[in-house]
Design a protein that fits this description.
about 20% strand, three-stranded antiparallel sheet, alpha/beta, single chain, pyruvate-formate lyase- activating enzyme, Arc Repressor Mutant, subunit A, about 40% helix
Length: about 475
């Protein structure tokens, strides 16, 4: 066993050398195993049995996700499943299909299970006309029972929303809104094909608060073309002027083999390197910490009085396909194109092709394209990885009692792989457990990778570990 004494380090000490060593491609761990391990052998997944098992007597609450993929224009950085069209009638066509899927799945779910969380994601949910959103909300209320304190959230593109949208969303019970800001610099906005004046952001936030939707999250992205430390500092200032409760700060993911529009950045020689992205993230993180925000983990920041920050302090954070959450223990049922669902031991995803999705629904079939059934070992490793991602620590005695074997002995090789991180003061490790230090907080997912059976740490990191 590797032993260490308590060490402290300032986040500012997280230098470029650490990034060169640890900035390796890897999962964000919104699930374990990650979604790229899903497969098309749906017989092995046995979806009908998975839903039946999840709805046995005494089953807990549920969370719903609605993927509304329609967008009026294409943002060149976007990696989401979208359908770009200016035809508003497509919203009603898509809604017809979506409502049939909701009915198919809801017939298999115990109506007594309360919905504690609902999220409308996209795409652009506010591409849908207000009456279409109202109809969707009524459909959901007809098929599910909502908890009185359910968190109901929606993603909003400030360029594509009206006051009528806001009023309808509030009537549907929406109490949290997430605005896609990304960047407020005009040169960056032009480079990514998303021009969005700050005046739009201010107007929509005012509308939301006037309607009583006061919980506001903002999405920012770093690593975009033409971003500089000075420009992202101004973006943070503009974002803070909106007085958000939370910010999600995502790293731009360059996947042109999946999203061909991103090749534009290569053709224009606008891609930023990992060290440049580090500098941008360091600026954003420092600005938010100085403003008093709490680094909840990975890419989430929250004001100290926000329930996400409170859950972080209390050790009650949960992580699912939407990121960090305050509602643990809920099974997730996703609806719509590419939506992912998760019960305790099974994941499944709907088709990304509209034709395949529509055909499955027309045939009266659950629209699953791929999935994964977790083994007992998968579930143990998920427990470990989520403890690192959400609690930033592992209690070996607690895990040994839960698993029924000596944790440190069984996962000795994984703990040994953490040796270089120990020397770099990213964490402490002794007989009682593992604790992530402030210096290691921006590298949570890299620490978690040591316990990922589906992923191998880079040869450089493992070679360094073998010399310790």
């Amino acid at each position: 066993m590797i032993r260490s004494h308590e060490l402290s380090a300032s986040p500012a000490e997280w230098d470029l050398d650490l990034v060169r060593r640890y900035a390796v491609p890897g999962p964000r761990y919104t699930s374990y195993p990650p979604a790229n391990k899903f497969h098309t052998d749906l017989t092995a997944v046995d979806l009908e049995q998975a839903i039946a098992d999840d709805n046995r007597p005494g089953a807990g609450p549920i969370s719903l996700y609605l993927h509304l993929p329609l967008c009026e224009s294409r943002c060149w950085y976007c990696g989401c499943t979208t359908i770009v069209t200016r035809r508003r009638d497509w919203a009603y066509t898509y809604l017809d299909i979506l409502e049939r899927e909701i009915a198919l799945v809801a017939a298999r779910i115990d109506r007594r299970r309360p919905v504690v969380q609902l999220h409308f994601g996209g795409g652009t949910p506010t591409f849908f006309p207000p009456d279409a959103l109202a109809r969707l909300g009524q459909t959901l209320r007809r098929h599910f029972t909502f908890a009185a304190d359910a968190e109901i959230s929606v993603e909003i593109d400030p360029r594509r929303v009206t006051r009528e949208h806001i009023d309808v969303l509030r009537a549907l019970g929406v109490n949290r809104a997430s605005l896609g800001i990304q960047d407020t610099d005009l040169a960056v906005q032009r480079a990514i094909n998303r021009v969005q004046p700050q005046s739009d952001n201010l107007r929509v936030v005012d509308w939301l608060r006037q309607a009583g939707i006061t919980a506001i999250n903002l999405d920012l992205i770093y690593g975009l073309p033409r971003q500089t430390p000075a420009s992202v500092r101004q973006t943070v200032a503009d974002a803070l002027a909106l007085r958000p409760d939370r910010l999600s700060v995502f790293s731009y993911a360059h996947v042109p083999w999946i999203k061909p529009a991103q090749r534009i950045f290569e053709q224009r020689d606008q891609l930023l390197g990992p060290e440049q992205k580090l500098q941008l993230f360091a600026v954003i993180r420092q600005e938010l910490l100085e403003e008093g925000f709490i680094d909840v983990g990975l890419d989430h920041f929250a004001r100290p009085d926000d329930e996400l920050a409170q859950a972080h302090r209390d050790g009650n954070l949960h992580r699912n396909f939407q990121g960090y959450s305050t509602r643990p223990g809920a099974s997730l049922y996703g609806f719509g194109l590419s939506a992912i669902s998760a019960t305790p031991d099974v994941y499944w995803q709907s088709p990304k092709s509209l034709a395949d999705y529509r055909a499955a629904i027309a045939a009266g079939q659950l629209p699953a394209e791929r999935g994964y059934r977790l083994t007992a070992e998968d579930q143990r490793r998920r427990r470990i990885i989520m403890a690192i991602m959400c609690r930033r620590r592992l209690d070996f005695d607690e895990l040994s009692a839960e698993f029924g074997f000596d944790f440190a002995l069984r996962y000795f090789d994984c703990l040994q792989a953490l040796a270089p991180m120990l020397l770099d003061h990213l964490l402490t490790l002794d007989e009682s457990g593992l604790q992530v230090l402030p210096r290691g907080e921006p590298l949570l997912r890299v620490i978690a990778m040591a316990f990922d059976e589906t992923y191998q740490l880079s040869p450089t990191v493992r070679a360094h570990a073998s010399t310790v």
